[in-house]
Write a structure and sequence with these properties.
CATH architecture of one domain: Alpha-Beta Complex
CATH topology of one domain: Lambda Exonuclease, Chain A
Distance between the termini: 84 Å
Mean pLDDT: 81
Number of strands: 27
Length: about 900
């Protein structure tokens, strides 16, 4: 296709270039497109602002002080008009019309004065495009008057306000833009088409979209910036189909948050190529009995929202609401109406598509008299677009509500409906107050949610299901057969210490007092099976004959419902295999017939963490006294925000620790007595620790490979990575033959010194190569520390492996954790991973009740039954019939050692 390009750069061409190079090229060629309603409205508003500004200028200055419709030259400016309006600057390539100039004091070639540019803008706010236009006008003006203006003036908004804009003193960007526009005049081919956000209001939007679809251009994927498009172009990826072939699902990186907001453009391209909907990961959409679907319409530039629409769903019932504001003063009223409608319910969720609704609520919260209702709505607000962005890939070019709705079979009552079009309808309503424009907005607002078919299966319609549910409800824990009965008596009065007590004994009962009893549950482990154990614990109200004090034995009151064996099994499944409490509750019901709710199982964690706190401290002390310490950290998302989990590990012990931030200042105090070698990644917080350090070379190799992938033709970069790879290969071969032993490794130190020698003096022209060179020189004393020590690895795989075990749990629990519960879980996970590193069973360690892993490992291995209840050493009476009864009479002053034995 041949291009006929105009010979002059006009203001229209320059303005188009700031938004899109293709649009500027089409304007230079003299082409015209279909102007959208919104664009036409902007032109009309700009004309209105221009008329108001000129009227204000003329009203404040005599006719002779204002020059209008002149050719801009140094001679005309020397005539010293106070204002110059609608002036034209002409040269070989330019024919620019300046909206206006204002005379200000200051020396220039013209005299003791010079001019600053003025701009008429239709918007309420001043954007970067307007600032750049002023800078270009100022640069051109400086060539006439010999002085670059330090500021410019913009008349803007419906009220025609003036804003003084400070111009950038660094003119390199401005000169580059002006040079590129001039080069476009003589260009033989059009610029590379790249679709952007301006396309939705551009007059050439249909033409460019058709061209991009025909070329299968990669810029069709919305959400991909120009820098990223150019990065793919350097790799030869120019089309959507090419990008689709590059998707490879990879394992989650150790620093990647469990619920990342990253979007894989390659998977998006794959969905378009295959015309399928792909779901990446497991999106979790919160639910509630009351569901509110919220949509708000407003004018972002004016900072004013005029329509709040919502659909409220409660079961099968659905209500629709629309709160309309005629003007800015009504905004508070519609907001209070919305709050009153929503907050009358106790449990609700508010769903919005995008972040506009949250911004509206945050803005209105500052003005609200009552903050609590707004906080309730903000806490219940769910941005469904964020879930779609991270997890769902539709075969559409964008995640716009209209595109996604069309993909799912929905349609709009108004084909041209869009966010931009709604602004046009609102402005037309403000100008005419015609009911048709208001009705269009309300109708579109009410259709902001898709209706899906819902299928429900009611148990009450099937007699078989009804009988099975009734049977499952009848199997309650209090109907289970008792395995053991325990009678709990007290020997002394807790008030006076007297042993003269009256209590239930030998089948008799004190008159007026009833027998107390409750059940406890446990699991008994043998070499071939696990069986349920139901213990019935009985006691009676005791009365002291000395002081007449009446009491129930403290031992009975603090008796736990679930004993150590059951809790050990649950904690083993939860920590070692990441089984959720609700799933464990279902397993206990199906395997053992025990009805234990998920909340009760969740409370096992702090109980067991308290019991094994001394074990955790012993492990930590042993780690810090070792010769090698691996450290790493990863992010975790909590209910109240985010935090970081740090891991400290050796080859046999692992410790996890929670910190609210990633700041590494605590390491200085924590590791002040550590004198071994610290193995870490390249996080700068580790550099301040005063001990020998070994940086993970695998991290360095990954970064090198990524740089080579991003810069495949960078010879300077290859000149550094090639010798480094060869050096490391030789060292690894020695390690494979002899292990991590200093006598064999220290022979490579001269080769290391030879590698660093040229890096110390040379500098690279390539940015990537220079960055890598500086990094290598900075850490040269910490990259090959393992050559001078025995048993020090050259990587941080030990810590990364430990982090990975927590990352598995983080994937399913992120966002639902509390800080105190996470600390308890990390304590138990530390013991679990230490057992794994030492090759012993975590479950057997828990069942043994041992609190020292070293002591447990030293015990002789033999096949034996694990005793679960060992808290009633005397007073045992066996009866001829089952179950047996145990009578316990112990003083309540027994040590803390027996507390967990009760469960």
């Amino acid at each position: 296709m041949g291009w006929v390009v105009a010979t002059k750069i006009t203001r229209e061409v320059l303005e188009a270039y700031l938004y899109c190079k293709t649009k500027a090229h089409l304007k230079l060629a003299g082409q015209q497109g279909n102007v959208s309603d919104y664009q036409a409205l902007l032109v009309a508003n700009r004309q209105e602002v221009s008329q108001q500004a000129i009227a204000k200028i003329l009203a404040g200055h005599p006719e002779g002080e204002v020059a209008r419709d002149i050719i801009l030259t140094a001679a005309t400016l020397r005539e010293r008009p106070s204002f110059v309006l609608n002036a034209t600057l002409e040269d070989d390539l330019l024919s620019l019309i300046f909206d206006g100039l204002k005379r200000v004091d200051g020396p220039s070639k013209l005299g003791e004065f010079h001019y600053v540019p003025m701009l008429f803008h239709e918007g309420q706010r001043v954007g970067k495009e307007q600032r750049l236009r002023l800078e270009i006008y100022g640069l051109l003006l400086s060539r006439l008057q010999g002085q670059m203006p330090s500021s410019g003036i913009i008349w803007h908004g419906r009220e025609c306000r003036t804003t003084k804009v400070r111009l950038n003193g660094d003119l390199r960007k401005t000169e580059r833009v002006l040079r590129e526009v001039k080069e476009m005049v003589n260009a033989q081919s059009p610029p590379k088409l790249i679709l952007n956000d301006h396309c939705q209001i551009c007059e050439f939007r249909q033409r460019c979209h058709e061209q991009a679809v025909q070329e299968d251009d990669i810029s069709l994927l919305r959400g991909m910036g120009e820098k990223e498009i150019k990065r793919f172009a350097r790799k030869g990826i120019l089309t959507v189909t090419q990008l689709a072939h590059t998707f490879r699902p990879r394992r989650r990186g150790k620093r990647t948050p469990p619920k990342s907001n990253r979007r894989y453009h390659a998977l998006h391209a794959l969905a378009l190529r295959d015309k399928r909907v792909y779901v990446f990961g497991t999106p979790q959409l919160p639910d509630a009995p009351i569901q509110v679907y919220l949509d708000i319409e407003g004018h972002p530039e004016q900072g004013f929202d005029y329509l709040v629409g919502m659909i409220l769903v409660e079961g099968e019932n659905e209500q629709r609401f629309s709160f309309w504001a005629d003007n800015r003063d009504d905004e508070d009223r519609i907001f209070e109406q919305f709050l009153a409608t929503v907050t009358q319910y106790q449990d609700f969720r508010v769903f919005a598509y995008g972040g506009y609704e949250r911004a509206f609520l945050m803005r209105m919260k500052k003005r609200a008299k009552r903050k609590a209702p707004v906080d309730r709505v903000l806490k219940a607000l769910v941005n469904t677009l964020s879930l779609v962005y991270s997890h769902v890939y539709f075969p559409t070019y964008s995640n716009g509500l209209k595109d996604v709705g069309a993909c799912l079979g929905s349609s709009w009552t108004e084909p041209s409906a869009s966010g931009v079009q709604s602004l046009v309808w609102r402005m037309r309503w403000e100008a005419t107050h015609a009911a048709e424009w208001k009705q269009k907005l309300i109708t579109i607002n009410q259709c902001g949610r898709f209706d899906y078919q819902r299928q429900r299966v009611y148990v009450r319609t099937s007699k078989m299901l009804k009988r099975s549910q009734k049977k499952s409800r009848s199997r309650r824990s209090d109907k289970l057969r008792i395995s053991q009965r325990v009678q709990i008596n007290s020997r002394k009065c807790p008030s006076c210490g007297s042993a003269e007590l009256i209590h239930w004994a030998k089948g008799k009962q004190v008159t007026g007092f009833s027998t107390k009893h409750k059940r406890a549950f446990d699991l008994v482990f043998t070499s071939g099976m696990i069986k349920r154990k139901v213990i019935e614990c009985r006691t009676a109200v005791h009365q002291c004959l000395t002081c007449s004090h009446t009491f129930i034995p403290e031992r009975y009151q603090r008796l736990a419902k679930h004993f150590h064996g059951l809790m050990s099994w649950a904690i083993y499944q939860h920590v070692a295999h990441r089984i959720s409490p609700n799933t464990l509750a279902e397993m206990l019901k199906n395997f053992f017939g025990l009805s234990v709710c998920g909340q009760s199982i969740d409370r096992f964690t702090p109980v067991m963490a308290f019991y094994y706190r001394a074990c955790y401290k012993t492990l930590f002390d042993k780690i810090l006294s070792g010769e090698v310490l691996h450290v790493d950290e990863t992010e975790v998302r909590l209910r109240t925000g985010k935090g970081y989990v740090w891991v400290f590990t050796t080859s046999e012990e692992v410790i996890y620790m929670f910190r609210p931030t990633r700041e590494g200042d605590f390491l200085l105090d924590l590791l002040k007595n550590f004198h071994g070698v610290l193995v870490t990644d390249f996080y700068s917080a580790y550099d301040s620790v005063d001990c020998p350090q070994q940086k993970c070379l695998i991290h360095l190799m990954r970064d090198m490979n990524q740089e080579l992938l991003n810069n495949p033709f960078d010879e300077e970069l290859q000149a550094i990575t090639g010798p480094f790879g060869g050096l490391l290969l030789k060292i690894v071969e020695t390690i494979d033959q002899h292990g991590l032993k200093r006598p064999y490794l220290e022979k490579h130190e001269p080769e290391v010194a030879e590698f660093f020698k040229p890096l110390m003096t040379q500098s690279c022209r390539s940015e990537a190569a220079e960055t890598l060179r500086v990094r290598l020189v900075k850490y040269q004393d910490k990259l090959f520390t393992f050559l001078r020590h025995d048993g020090v690895p050259w990587n941080n795989n030990n810590a990364e492996n430990a982090i990975r075990q927590f990352a598995y749990y983080r994937e399913v629990a992120a966002g639902r954790l509390k800080e105190d519960r996470l600390r308890d879980y990390l304590l138990l996970l530390s013991i679990s991973q230490t057992c794994r590193y030492r090759g012993v069973s975590f479950l057997k360690f828990l069942l043994s009740r041992e609190r020292d892993i070293d002591a447990f490992c030293e015990k002789p291995r033999r096949r034996r039954r694990f005793p679960i209840i060992e808290v009633y050493p005397k007073g045992i009476e066996r009866t001829d019939s089952r179950p047996r009864t145990t009578t316990v009479s112990k003083p309540e002053s027994q040590g803390q050692e027996e507390k967990l034995a009760d469960g």
